[in-house]
Amino acid sequence: MTLSLPAEFGLIGRYFAPLAGPEGLGLRDDAALFTPPAGRELVITKDAMVAGVHFIGDEPADLIARKLLRSNLSDLAAMGATPLHYLLALAVSRGTDEAWFAAFAKGLAQDQAHFNITLLGGDTVSTTGPLCVSATLIGHVTPGHALRRTGACVGDGLYVTGTIGDAALGLRALRGDIIDADGYLVSRYRLPQPRLGLALHGIAHAAMDISDGLLQDLGHLCRASALGARIDAALVPVSIPGQIETCLTGGDDYELLLAVPPARHVDLQKACAGLRITKIGEFVAGERITVCDIEGAPMTFSRAGWSH
Questions:
Q1: DSSP category for residue 75
Q2: What's the pLDDT score for residue 307?
Q3: How confident is the model at residue 296 (pLDDT cuts 50, 70, 90)?
């Protein structure tokens, strides 16, 4: 008797098995097998994205795949880790066109090659709800060298990479609220740029990535370090002036937020050579986070950031 494979396993064989490295065992076993790099600590993170919540839902499948990987890779970047492998889970509606899976796998393959990672395995299920995609990223770091949210000190400079608020502005452009003539802001929303490969151990006292809005994520870092912070709004690097609330609270930046002592400013610039890095304030004693306008007066906002 010849048994045919269920449709799910046919899709896995055609589109996802080719993405697996040797450790994934061709996606034919119950689990993967891999040996961590000798003398390294593993760094593991997981994020999920739901259509209509974390992305609009009508994006090309390859861009959804790449945003999924990159949002997780940004967590590894925040801890100073080198990415290795990932696990994938998809919840898709029955009857999803096979071309969607082909495009999704193509996006995974493109970023696998770019970031030098391979698929270990995962799961695919059907759902009556919206599309949901999730990835678990595995990286490695020298023992004791991982950057954490704890450790910021009074007087440390508050630094950010890149420009802040581009993704939130890109979402507003997709909704027709603002003009994005060259598509740059939309590209920043759809395709984050994880800041991997920065040698920040011994330079930054604390770090995290910005995913839910700079103000909200800074609050997480401040609580972890038992400090407050002061931001000079005029110093925040933005692509469109006059949108400071959107830029500070919008989310999806996937830039890095760093606490760096004044004595390591030059070292930070060298470590981030070729990448924009901006001091926007400093860490202070207490619990308050204050954003000051050009006159030094505190500013107020309707929210701190994105809530899931």
A1: H
A2: 57
A3: very high
Contact predicate 191/67, CB 8 Å = yes
What is the rounded distance in angstroms from the CA atom of residue 289 to the CA atom of residue 213? 14
Question: Angle at which helices 61-78 and 98-115 pack, to 10 degrees?
Answer: 30
How many residues are there in the chain? 308
In a domain, 68, yes or no: yes
Report strand pairing: 228-232 vs 132-141: unpaired
Instruction: For residues 165 and 281, state if they share a domain.
Output: yes
Q: Please check whether residue 112 is in contact with residue 147, taking contact to mean a CB–CB distance below 8 angstroms.
A: no
- Count up the domains in the chain and report the number: 2
CA 250 to chain CA centroid, nearest Å: 14
Rg (the chain; Cα; Å): 21
What CATH number is attached to the domain comprising 272? 3.90.650.10
* Cα–Cα dist 24/88, whole Å: 12
CA 26 – CA 135 distance, rounded (Å): 18
pLDDT of residue 305: 65
Q: What residues have CB less than 8 Å from 292, skipping those under 6 apart?
A: 230, 231, 232, 233, 298, 299
Instruction: Look up residue 194 and give its two tokens.
Output: 């994880």
* Contact call for residues 153 and 275 (beta carbons, < 8 A): no
Range of the domain at 135: 7-26+42-141
Distance of CA 82 to the CA centre of its chain: 14
Indicate if 114 and 208 belong to the same structural domain.
no
The confidence band for 174, taking pLDDT boundaries of 50, 70 and 90, is very high
Report yes or no on 130 lying in a domain: yes
Q: What is the pLDDT of residue 2?
A: 39
